[in-house]
Amino acid sequence: MNLRVFKKDVDYLVEEIISDALLGLNFAQGNEKEDVIYNVISEAIALREAIYIKINHYDRENARAYFNGVHTEFLKALDSLFEKLSETAR
Predict the structure, then answer these.
(1) Distance in angstroms (rounded) separating the CA atoms of residues 22 and 56
(2) pLDDT digits (tens, 9 = 90+) for 14-62
(3) What span, in angstroms and rounded, lies between the C-alpha atoms of 10 and 25?
(4) Could you tell me if 11 and 55 are in contact, meaning their C-beta atoms sit under 8 angstroms apart?
(5) Average pLDDT of 68-76?
(6) Nearest of 81, 63, 84 to residue 16 by alpha carbon
(7) SS3 for 60?
(8) E strand or H helix at 3
(9) What residue numbers bound the domain in which 82 lies?
(10) pLDDT at 51
(11) How many domains does the chain have?
(12) Half-sphere exposure (CA, 13 Å, Cβ side) for 14?
């Protein structure tokens, strides 16, 4: 896995969730949905920072397995954020 590509993927996908959240904010009806959307944005930013820390500080001996785990963790967390955002649209 190329670290440069992985970092670009992280940036792109986090920007997408934030973009979708801001779009959903325009259609949110009520403070409860707005709070959930703001929490999703905050969690997305925190996720990006946490993943970057994990990317930048790793054991070089087991790098491939480590990054596969980080990648899987990132995708699961991102999926969870998209599901939370989808719940506000219902």
Answers:
(1) 29
(2) 999 999 999 988 887 777 888 899 999 999 999 999 999 999 998 888 8
(3) 22
(4) no
(5) 95
(6) 81
(7) coil
(8) helix 3-27
(9) 3-88
(10) 96
(11) 1
(12) 20
